[in-house]
Amino acid sequence: MRTWTKRGEKVTASLRLGPLLRHPGPTTATVWVETDAPCLVSVVVEGAARATAPTFTVHGHHYAVCTVEGLAPGSRLPYEVFLDEDRVWPEPGSPFPPSTVRTVDPGAPTRLLYGSCRTPTEDTPEGIVRYGPDMLRATARRLAREPVEGNLALLLIGDQVYADEVQESMLAFLREARGADDTAPADEVVHYDEYAELYRQAWSDPQVRWLLSTVPTLMVFDDHDIRDDWNTSAAWRRAMERLPWWRGRITSGLGSYWVYQHLGNLSPGEREGDPLWKAVRAAGGDAAEEVDAFAWRAHSEPSSYQWGQRHDFGGVRVLVADTRCSRALDEDDPSDGSRSILGPRGHAWLDEHLTGGPDHLVVASTVPVLLPPAVHDLEAWNEAVCAGAWGRWARGPAERLRQEIDLEHWAAFRYSFERLLDTVARVSRGERGPAPATVLFLSGDVHFSYLARARYRTGGGTSRVTQLVSSPLCNQAPTTMRRMVHLSVSWPLRLVGRVLSRLAGVRPPAPRWRVEEGPYFGNTIGEVGFEGREARAAWYHCPASGADTPPAVRLRTRV
């Protein structure tokens, strides 16, 4: 560990967070770390290569991204992390197997783990009773005992942190860190230092830390990473912009997201071409000003940055879409694209990559594309009424209802929903290249899990189109919500939703679908396995509570 001198005092660098194994390539592996002082970070892979990178600084916090190059496809090799000359990972006496880098083998089977909505809690009886068993911890225990061959990746698709619903340990940090004149809400994260602590608390548990160090992990934000209902509507944005602390919140939230989550999603080539990465490296010292300016622009000009990601695992193409930051929110005509869940740049990006060729196309969207049909119709009706389908008198009540019960998924963005499903139909018919065996939507957000299969009324093709939802990882739904969800899949409510949407002038969607498996409640992590043209889905849960409970398969099915 390097010893730095500051004002006559010696400061020794140590590992504050990480290592996190991030973007996987056929010949490269990316490792992200946070340290508590500037230093040179090295990742040494057993019998292979060594990668080094100096730390960069944002708001007084120090980070490094190391890319190990020249690895063979399909490698699975132990690695160590050094801060200058001293080894800091693995930690002495760790009960887990050595952390490994994994590269993509284009010819091997692929397994994708996915989930969302995780509140970090202590493994105590009280924490488990309130939030349920933590499925990231449970997955670490499973993978430590059951090594996985072939390609493996973890998709964390939203609400990796809850900036607006913090735990007691975070509340204690806020009380100690803030001055008496701070206008920020006492129970919410606002400033960059607070986000840094929120991430530290979320990812420092020993089991979670080992899991993230050894499974390539891809991430995308959802609303709670910033604030509940983030970018629900233009009215929501106007209300937030009137709050004196909001600019600091959105700037810190998006800036820290880029550092902690998004930077590791990028391939080495994408990272070198990223405008903020260039600015951070050119800053010379603390890059807080550059990161803050970028974050504010990403918020105020939603199409100024492309958050979407493409990842290829042999015959499996994964497209991770930004359904939050880039939303276009003009309410006047929801059918012309001025209100869309991806924004114009996001739609263009998805159109570019949503093509035939691979055996399987996976669209990772934090919010489900195919909701239970009754909920879909309710959201489509609400969007139309908010736009004036029932006259001006109904717009205000409809907007309040939208924000009160979170009517803000793909169904509430009719233009985006129809554009996506039309493109999927053309892909399935082989009009955009050889048709894949499956088109899968992987989602979270809703705090229950299910499978829905879609069938086009006319013009469908050969691809199997399926919605898979796994949520939450650790934030189980209360009893009242479970009752409402069960009601939402009933036939009477489906009929009510259908009638309401038609009375508002909403045309029927191109495909039909229904929830065929689920809804399942409780904390869950999903898994999809791909081999050749076949795909199988599974959901894991912990049927018994306890810190050492092994996860079990709730359901396994072909998709």
Give the structure's gist in a few sentences.
It contains 16 helices and 26 strands. The protein is an alpha+beta fold.
How does this structure look, described?
The chain is built from 16 helices and 26 strands. It starts with a strand and ends with a strand. By secondary structure, it is an alpha+beta fold. Helix 2 (135-145) packs across helix 5 (206-214), helix 12 packs across helix 13 and helix 12 (373-386) packs parallel to helix 16. Strand 21 and strand 22 form a beta hairpin.
Draw up the topology in text.
Elements (H helix, E strand, L loop, with lengths): L2 E4 L2 E4 L2 E10 L4 E7 L4 E6 L4 E5 L1 E3 L2 E8 L7 E8 L2 E4 L10 E3 L7 E6 L9 H7 L3 H11 L5 E7 L10 H10 L14 H12 L2 H9 L2 E4 L13 H8 L4 H17 L5 H6 L1 H8 L5 H13 L8 E5 L2 E5 L7 E2 L9 E2 L2 H11 L6 E5 L8 H14 L8 H10 L9 H15 L9 E6 L5 E8 L7 E6 L9 H10 L2 H13 L7 E10 L4 E7 L2 E8 L10 E7 L1
Parallel strand pairs: 12-13, 13-14, 16-19, 19-20, 20-22
Antiparallel strand pairs: 1-2, 3-4, 4-8, 5-6, 5-9, 7-8, 9-10, 9-11, 12-24, 15-16, 17-18, 21-22, 21-23, 24-25, 25-26
Helix pairs in contact: 2-5, 3-4, 4-7, 7-10, 12-13, 12-16
